[in-house]
Design goal:
mainly alpha
Length: 355
């Protein structure tokens, strides 16, 4: 029976893929497909957090940084694509009509460069940051504070660079997605399907990593770091790999968020956004495979529904949910499945004794 457990997770991924890729596009309206696409983007980020935090014990509270790197890379390309070949984006002309386009924008006219930047840029930043922190054995609250501080710094920097990034207004009004018109409902469904397929791919990657030798080492590093070091492995390198993978997934989620939602602002990449991502993972269950993704989608749904109808009360509801889960379900909603499994054999045994 224990040999079948990994394959049960694989079957679960297949069912999840069927629901997202087949059922949802044929059942939901365009409004809800757009909303579900946004939740899927959050779920992609959450899957990476589940690997780094749930499996590796690293409380990554600054994933807004990597989400922002992917989002702004995609937004810059879509803005240039909307402006046209060799044209300056409209928002730059409004702020300074005589100034040329910033040099770092020009490479993002290329589709290939943009896609590479979405993967390589967060990987480089996470590698540099990870080496600086893990080699110095920074962990726990200090690691969480430092990563969150970076999210605050990036959001502040973007807000202050109005002509280069749009400032607090952000980047929006995208008309094309790699040549496809975004106003067309068929293309909107296509973009959603790409995001959903990437979520399934991320789940597959984490599933494979968890059952690999690396997954065992990552779990051992979380629980007994000194023992892992004594056995001849460098815990810093093990953590670094998980941290980089989580950063890439956050960047992918941010990149797909842009064409689906149609805007990216500093509010989506700051400390509050990073905390929401962590809250979703904690709600679903950080140590499980599906828990982070489902928890992030639930938080996204709550934010879209409650925040619009009850904006002043949404944050209190979120705080209450977080407190209740921490007190009664510290391993998240995913632990309910385990509890039910533990109860069922006990009840069956009691029935056997009574007979």
């Amino acid at each position: 029976m224990t040999k079948l457990k990994p394959w049960l997770s694989l079957i679960g991924i297949g069912v999840f893929a069927l629901l997202l890729l087949v059922v949802a596009p044929n059942v939901l309206s365009m409004h809800w497909i757009g909303n579900l696409g946004k939740y899927v983007c959050y779920a992609i980020v959450a899957v990476g957090i589940g690997l780094a935090w749930g499996r590796g014990g690293m409380l990554v509270m600054g994933q807004g940084v990597f989400f922002g790197l992917g989002a702004y890379a995609m937004a810059m390309h879509l803005t240039l694509e909307t402006a046209g070949p060799d044209r300056i984006p409209t928002f730059m002309i409004l702020y300074d009509p005589l100034a040329p386009i910033p040099a770092f924008w020009e490479p993002f006219r290329s589709e290939a460069f943009t896609l590479l930047a979405i993967i390589l840029l967060p990987a480089i930043v996470a590698s540099v940051l990870g080496i600086a922190l893990f080699k110095r054995r920074v962990k726990g609250a200090y690691f969480a504070i430092l990563t969150q501080a970076l999210a605050v710094a990036l959001a502040t920097f973007v807000s202050s660079t109005i002509r280069e990034t749009g400032g607090d207004t952000g980047l929006s009004d995208f008309k094309y997605f790699f040549g496809y018109v975004l106003d067309d409902d068929r293309n909107k469904v296509m973009v959603y399907l790409i995001a959903a397929a990437l979520l399934v791919l991320c789940l597959m990657v984490v599933w494979q990593l968890n059952r690999s030798r690396f997954g065992e080492l990552l779990l051992a590093t979380r629980d007994a770091e000194e023992r892992v070091r004594f056995l001849g492995y460098d815990p810093a390198n093990i953590k670094l790999v998980a941290f980089v993978v989580a950063a890439i997934m956050a960047s992918i989620g941010g990149a797909m968020f842009v064409p689906i939602v149609g805007i990216i602002t500093p509010q989506e990449i700051g400390a509050s956004a990073s905390i929401l991502m962590i809250a979703g993972v904690a709600l679903g269950g950080r140590a499980s495979l599906f828990g982070p993704a489902l928890g992030a989608m639930a938080i996204g749904f709550g934010q879209s529904t409650l925040a619009s109808s009850w904006p002043s009360g949404w944050i209190y509801v979120l705080g209450l949910v977080f407190i209740l889960v921490t007190l009664f379900l510290p391993k998240g909603l995913a632990s309910l499945v385990t509890r039910v499994k533990d109860i069922l054999p006990t009840s069956r045994a009691q029935k056997g004794l009574s007979t």
